[in-house]
Amino acid sequence: xxxxxxxxxxxxxxxxxxxxGVFFIGVFAVIGTLxxxxxxxxxxxxxxxxxxxxVNQERIDIKADMEGVVEAxxxxxxxxxxxxxxxxxxxxxxxxxxxxxxVYKGDFIAPGKVLGVYHKWQPGILLQGMWLTLKVSMYAxxxxxLIGMLGGIARxxxxxxxxxxxxxxxxxxxxxxxxxxxxxxxxxxxxxxNQLLLRYGFSEIDALYYGVAALATFTGAYVTEIxxxxxxxxHRGQTEAARSLGMTGPQAMFYIILPQAMRRILPPLAGQFIxxxxxxxxxxxxxxxxxxxxxxxxITISLSPYEFWFTCAILYLVLTFTLSMVVQYMERxxxxx
Amino acid sequence: MIEVTDVxxxxxxxxxxxxxxxxxxxxxxxxxxxxxxxxxxxxxxxxRCLNHLEAADSGHILIDGIDxxxxxxxxxxxxxxxxxVFQSFNLFPHKTVLENITLAQKxxxxxxxxxxxxxxxxxxxxxxxxxxxxxxxDNLSGGQQQRVAIARALAMDPKVMLFxxxxxxxxxxxxxxxxxxxxxxxxxxxxxxxxxxxxxFAREVADRVIFMDEGAIVEVGTPEHFFKNPxxxxxxxxxxxxx
Lengths: 337, 243
What we know:
The complex is a heterodimer. By secondary structure, chain A is an alpha+beta fold. Chain A is built from 9 helices and 7 strands.
């Protein structure tokens, strides 16, 4: 019997590894097929082009701004100083950052002449785009939470002005495409507001903030519904217990209901914010250079669409996956209590 | 202490029910009143009207001379003086036992943390669960939870305590520990209104028993009168069903 059980277990385990194998074969088959197809149409892959769109080195020139002669080059390495003498006097150019000095003693110098050069690392277009996506998403998440909290509380209020406002807001925002809303924010509201601002002598507001506003109001509507559901899922007895102790409605909400609702709200909220990060790709349509727009620009320069679209997708995955990890961590922390 | 005059209450959701039909009674300070009656008789509604968890439609409810049906009354002030214990405990699950007892003291009574803790300490000893001060309600038995709930209500130094079927949700072996706390409270002279099915408690502790049926008070009397010589047929029927 024992022997049979062992065989059974072995069979079970080998079957398990068999199906794990099937999974990986499937994954590689998809990748292989894709590669084979691109080879068929003579697409040449240039993955080595990609890293420089994350970070690249820029050459910075140290230039002279006068005419004259190099009188002396004093010191070495970090302490090097090029002294240029002209009819009006002499001026020294410190070469602390320079990797190379391009002039010698006695050289004639014209304004704009490069005395030395160095290289500086700078973020590439993809990294800039990713940072902007992150920034826009974070702003929109913060304002989305604020709007959603207020909206959710208004949604369950007995006051018809509050309640109906919340319902109207949610229904309108949820019922129209985000792209259309972004266009309304940018082409209608932004134009209006900016023109009024200009008329009264203020400076214009950047398109970025209209983009953030569009995303925040969009997310806010969904968060409103999530918060409402979260609050309503807390048993009525909790409010009654709080009120029976003499707490006011807002006190009961703040100390008793919201902290409990928060725990239930967190998972759907995470889903909403992951959607938000992905939806921020639409902001490229109003000339905000977030990740997707940056990718399009990188493709225009590099002419390697396949590599960059995959890279773009992976970068979004990095952002969303990090967010869901953070939320899981928060959930676990709250659950310990 | 409590004066109830001709109180009516009708529910319209989910369907129309006349829960209270002209209820009038008076409860003196230090009195222990037990309200009994078949389910749906309006006894819970009556109790919940006393601290305005349900708003009565008409009539007058005076708590310590303050009419709580008057719209100008600050109900939160009155509620702080009226402790309530629920059938389902309704402890705050995200707070420890200690926090459950200190929160309202700090928020409503504006006591310092030290004063609130001292009070909580005293009450936890009194209800006999001092060792569970830092536990969360979900880790306590039903009887322990209900005793915490009693301590939480007592922490506000209420003038009246309302008990809404405090032992109905408990396993039989835990009923005793809760009733013991309530008995002690009654002996100390707390004004109590208790809705319960525990006839033993009614007989032993109550100064007065109120029998309600179909939203009205049918019979009022001392436990002795009530259990030995009930006058109304409906009371007799009810007692014959449960005893």
